[in-house]
## 1
Amino acid sequence: MTSAQELEKTTQPVRGTKKKPPGATQSSSGGRQGMFVRLSSDDKQRAEYWADKRGFSSVNEYVAEAVIEKVRRENLDYDLPTLEIARLNELVDQVAALAKNSANLERVVTTGFDSLIGLTRGDNYLLDDENGELA
């Protein structure tokens, strides 16, 4: 394969997309360089669907945006979606409630053992003699 054929292969858009009009230059795409991407037929269909749904002019534009977004995620440079924030806040609240429940359980157990120790010593109000009054 000649270098001209290889160059032509790398600059071809994903199949099923609109090609550049004749006379279009490389600078019209914002100074970006071409790249050849192979996708399975299912992935290609999904990419076409989402590109159309999101209003991209071509699948190539959608794929370029997807690559940029993936690189941002790899660099941990992204905003958390609302659902993730809500779930994280819910988990924080659950951990706080668990800590309160644990503290309450500790208090009940400590008080119970103090009562049992008091009963064995004989200094509990339950062991006082009754005088016949209900007060």
Note: Residues 1-27 have pLDDT under 50 and may be disordered.
## 2
Amino acid sequence: MYPAHTPQRSVEVHHPTPIQAPVAHSAPVVPMQPGSVPAVASVVLPDGRVVTGYAIDAVRPEPVTAKPAVSRAAVNVALGGVGFLAVCGGLLLLTSFIAALTAFIGQLIILAAVIFGGWIAVQVLSGSGHKGGTTVHIRKAVIKRNHFHG
């Protein structure tokens, strides 16, 4: 593990010192007279030690107070009111949704009319239309049909 030229080191080994158990002295239990001084409880543990302390009374829960009875009619009226408000809110949202959808469809129709109308206007007013079609000069056609030659 170490190279050959490294000097050897001495290792010190430390052994843990065991902890001695405390010597149990039994203390005499002195009874207390009841009165203004609280009672002292003593418990002897299996190893002979005595633990002394004050006894604590168990906490008693407070008595449950009776709740006032609620009328069945009052519960029905309250639930009916909540249901009515929920329906009114739903109808308001539905009405708002329908109005918004109607406005959106109207705007789409107007947009389509503007685009189609613009396309027609470009076709009519465009001077550089198709040159391959038949051009009819009304004045010449009328004159030719009535045999007015000039």
Note: The chain has two helices and two strands.
## 3
Amino acid sequence: MPIAPELQAKIDALEDENLRNRILRVLNGPGKKRASDEAIYETIVSSYTMATEQQARLRKWTEDEVVAFAKYFKEKQPEDYVEFLRQEKQFNEIEGGFALGVRQLVKEWMPDLNRNDCSGMFSRFRDYAKSRAN
């Protein structure tokens, strides 16, 4: 069944092309729909909006902060610091239990961080480690 013109106009008005395409794929997909096209549209757009807002709330780590954490890590756990650099360089990944320990160190370094911001620092620190490993 074709998309109602009013709903198509709403979809066309969305700024994000990937979001528009995602909605159209779901609405035009072969599966049986258990909700109305309008309800599907509203669900996808509200999920997208929530994710975008959450992303905007994440802390934006500066290079100086990443360097400060690296210094803290190196001073507190010099052997683990070297091991982190080695794993990142050799395997381009960090062993799970070891990664958890580094995340806990991030929380020790900056206790009030939420989980997402801690993950952001961990990711930025991995980038930093890659740049040091070359």
Note: The mean pLDDT is 94.
